[in-house]
Write a structure and sequence with these properties.
The complex is a heterodimer of chains A (about 240) and B (about 280). Chain A is α/β, with parallel strands linked by helices and about 240 residues long. Chain A has eight helices and twelve strands. In chain B, β3, α4 and β4 form a beta-alpha-beta unit. The chains are: A alpha/beta (about 240), B alpha/beta (about 280).
């Protein structure tokens, strides 16, 4: 029986991502990336059944693939600004205030590495909850200052007076879970995935993290959740390729 | 009523260097690639291109035809980063106006509605404001007093879009799951050209799909081109999916080599033949 084996790091990551959508109610879960999409599916199958999901293109679909609605890009943007959505984006860089970069690395005028461009990060961060998923926690990603603010962080939102719908609930990495409960709304360690130490997180983070007095571990999945992850949601074990134990 | 059918080369014959050109579709999805290939066969250059960027942007950038790109991204979807767009940016050969996706959409709406701008709650606080110092803000005159970005209209000289079906008058139909923004591109442009998989009689359009599939109306269309497989190698559901193997080839082959093999034949027919030959080689 597969559930007899120990929970892997990737499975803690799925649980940590799923928790981002707990108590969100009837909103669109927009997971970008493999582990967040497994997390969103797990949340919907368990504690957040009212979540809406898409097929990755223009259809709203149930867990069995039943089409329940139409969401082409132009309507998706209305869902964003209407606020009834919680996206989990990736980040090439993220800083202590939650400013995120997916546009380019280096000087914007002539970047060292051109990446995607800002995409919808500006509209997302000003309108609906935005969480982040970082599959490889390192100083290259967790930086003192991002090169191009695509997703708006707390300091920038306050300076620009655009905090009305600005909310960054959590950051999940392969090492732990973080929020912005530190001083001045800076990044704080919320939980470590089992097997990870505070020192390891500090070592991999390019700025000083706020730390609680005692750092808990990310919660264990229930037997039911483990079975769902392993047998229903990701039977091919793709999660283990994105995050190694 | 006038028959608006023309060839890809006739479309390009109506375009000029220095124009502002809108290109429909999204990323590597339903791009008017046959029209882009026709552009590549011409001498037209110094373009300002407005697009949710994909390989259309990559091809034009690789050939050095773009002076300025207005876009929120450029991607090949299954391959996240567009290699030629990247190379052009990293070599400093392409000037970028980088907008957020929603800013971009409202810029299209503003142009289609002949408004100078529309207010958008996106961009403020981000570096989109830093890298586009010409952007201005507007304050709500109502009690909330909220400040917004006044996204300028993305007006264009010409728009190029690709649809599944059209009639000879310029009524265009999409049959896939997403219209993208092709109707807005046509309405935001002084002239608009539709390429399509198949030109059909007007009466056939309503048989192929529901009224809502009739995305583009003839009043906003200048020319219609029948280009079967004309979105290749991007997707054109339900007629065909993206040609992933060929896209991968495009993304990994040095530009001169790719251009010599697939884009030097002098016609769309030559391109499609070269693609077929390549696929046959892969099967051996």
């Amino acid at each position: 029986m597969s559930t007899a084996t120990a929970t892997t790091r990737a499975e803690y990551c799925v649980i940590a991502c799923a928790e981002a959508w707990r108590d969100n109610g009837e909103v669109l879960a927009s997971p970008m990336g493999l582990i967040p999409s497994f997390g969103a599916r797990l949340a919907k199958r368990t504690f957040s059944p009212d979540l809406l999901l898409t097929d990755g293109e223009a259809l709203l679909v149930g867990l069995d693939g039943t089409v329940e609605g139409w969401l082409p890009y132009r309507r998706h943007l209305t869902m964003v600004t209407g606020g009834r959505r919680h996206v989990m984006m990736g980040a090439s860089q993220i800083d202590r205030y939650g400013n995120q970069n997916i546009s380019c690395v280096g000087d914007w005028e002539r970047p060292d590495r051109q990446l995607l461009g800002v995409r919808g990060a500006p509209v997302n961060t000003l309108n609906n909850p935005v969480s982040y998923w970082i599959p490889k926690h390192s100083r290259r990603v967790f930086v003192e200052r991002v090169d191009m603010v695509s997703g708006v962080g707390h300091d920038r939102a306050e300076a620009a007076g655009v905090t009305r719908f600005h909310r960054l609930p959590r950051v999940v990495s392969d090492l732990g879970v973080f929020d912005f409960g530190g001083p001045g709304r800076t990044m704080r360690l919320v939980s470590l995935h089992p097997g990870v130490t505070v020192d390891r997180v500090r070592e991999a983070t390019g700025f000083a993290l706020a730390l609680p007095d005692e750092v808990p571990f990310t919660r264990e999945p229930s037997a039911h959740e483990l079975r769902l992850i392993r047998e229903v949601i990701d039977p091919r074990g793709l999660r283990e390729r994105e995050v190694r134990s | 009523m006038s028959d608006k059918t023309m060839t890809p080369d006739e479309v390009v014959g109506r375009l000029r260097s220095g124009m502002t050109l809108g290109i429909g579709g999204w990323g590597s999805r339903r791009k008017p690639m046959a029209l882009v290939r026709a552009l590549l066969r011409s001498e037209i250059t110094d373009l300002t291109v407005i697009a949710y960027g994909g390989p259309d942007v990559g091809l034009l950038a690789a050939a050095g035809r773009i002076r300025r790109l207005v876009a929120p991204f450029a991607t090949l979807d299954s391959i996240p980063l567009e290699p030629h767009f990247r190379a052009a940016r990293e070599s400093g050969s392409l000037t970028l106006t980088e907008y957020d996706e929603a800013m971009f959409m409202w810029g299209l709406h503003a142009a289609a509605n002949r408004l100078p701008f529309l207010p958008v709650r996106a961009g403020l606080g981000s570096d989109v404001m830093r890298v586009n110092p010409e952007l201005r803000t507007v304050t709500s005159p109502y009690a909330d007093g909220e400040e917004f970005v006044a996204v300028p209209a993305l007006r264009m000289d010409a728009a190029l879009v690709h649809l599944n079906r059209a009639d000879r008058l310029g009524n265009g139909q999409y049959l896939g799951p997403d219209p993208y923004f092709d109707d807005l591109f046509c309405e935001a442009a002084d002239t608009a050209y539709i390429s399509c998989e198949q030109i059909v009689e007007s009466a056939e359009l309503a048989k192929a799909g529901p009224p809502q599939s009739l995305l583009v109306s003839r009043h906003s269309v200048t020319g219609v081109v029948e280009t079967p497989n004309g979105a290749h190698f991007t997707s054109c559901a339900p007629d065909y999916d993206r040609d992933e193997a060929f896209q991968k080839l495009y993304a990994t082959t040095p530009w001169p080599e790719f251009a010599a093999r697939f884009l030097s034949g002098g016609s769309e027919h030559a391109y499609q033949s070269a693609v077929r030959t390549w696929h046959e080689e892969q099967q051996q």
